[in-house]
Amino acid sequence: MPANPIFSEDYFQAQQRFMDLASRLGFETEIIPHPTFKSEEGPVQMTVALQGKPDSEHVVFITSGVHGTELTAGSGIQLDLMQRYLEQLPDNTKVVWVHAVNPAGCAIFTRTDENNVDNNRNSISFDGDLPQNPDYEELHTAICAPQITGEEWQAANAEIKAYTEKNGAGALTQKVLKGQYTVPMGLFYGGEETSWSTKTLKQVIVCYGQGAKRATIIDLHTGVGPSGFCEVMDLSSKPGEEAEWSLIGGFMCDTLDSLDLEVPPIKLILEFGTVPFEQVLDAHRRDNWLKRNRDTVAPELAAEIRQELKDALFVDTQEWCEALLTQSRDVFEQYVLKATVDA
């Protein structure tokens, strides 16, 4: 059990707790099963819960599990906010709680979906030429090293280090990791078509946001920044060049643009820091290696890789858990409760 019991051990526990709480609070719920991915552990689905009046003029979407590895943190935040502000929601506001946007990735505990698509690089148009990323292609064989121990791993790490020394530390996140569309089994792969998660979230947004005059989305993530610190990434306007996410495209938050609104939508990502970024990246690199070699990897090593990934995206201490809850409440109050009063 995590240090704070509002957080769950895995997707299946989190899913059941979300559904139970939504039912207990009287929220209307919709279950959207994944059409192809199945698990012996239980149903694999995106779950939607509606709080408030369906015809409210302000609709707020709060989403978790765009990256499967970050679902347990996001789910715990959702459970906390659903209960804490049950009686405080303004009359002209409804909240649409979307649990496990990427249910397949949540179920198998990986960042991507079942096709290795990073859903936070997928919300783009696939009608024309896809974005090019020569910086990623230059480092692909190092990022997705053939081995995760020994001389080959050391050589790959040295190549990444040499790149950052030459181009600056920010180049790794701003250029290399901004998304790529040429290596299907690589990291941060945006896909060659719109993923099921992106299509389905867009359908949810159009369905529940129809008729609203104003809309906000708050997407919950972990893994970048100082441990426990919440960076509020406002995608509603162009970020400054110094922002680590300034060149990233295809965010799931952009699905909010599907709505016809009276005012521009507010699109927020809450990014909670965990451990040093190099440790997070290495955990994803090892997980990617596991995907490419799953049939030959010993169960003990696979479990070790998954635990390392879990530890990189969720810091299991009382202090870290409380930091997530406290800062999420601040954002909810500002953008959901007070925003309606100020509008």
Name the features.
single chain, 343 residues, alpha/beta, 7-stranded mixed β-sheet
In a few lines, what is going on in this structure?
The protein is of the alpha/beta class and 343 residues long.
List the helices and strands and how they pair.
Layout (H helix, E strand, L loop, with lengths): L10 H14 L3 E6 L11 E7 L6 E6 L7 H14 L8 E7 L3 H6 L25 H10 L6 H18 L1 H8 L19 H14 L4 E14 L2 E5 L31 E8 L3 H17 L5 H15 L4 H25 L1
Parallel strand pairs: 3-4, 3-5, 5-7
Antiparallel strand pairs: 1-2, 2-4, 6-7
Word description of this protein:
This protein is α/β, with parallel strands linked by helices and 343 residues long. The chain is 41% helix and 15% strand. It has ten helices and seven strands. Strand 3, helix 2 and strand 4 form a beta-alpha-beta unit. The radius of gyration is 20 Å and the shape is globular.
Helical residue percent band: 40-55%
Across the major sheet, the strand order is 1-2-4-3-5-7-6
| Low-pLDDT stretches | none
SSE series: HEEEHEHHHHHEEEHHH
Gross morphology is globular
In this structure, how is the largest beta sheet organized? 7 strands, mixed
Tally the helices: what do you get? 10
- Rg: 20 Å
Distance between the ends:
41 Å
Pairing-aware structural class of the strands and helices? alpha/beta
Q: How many DSSP-defined strands? A: 7
Strand content: 15-25%
The average pLDDT score comes to 94
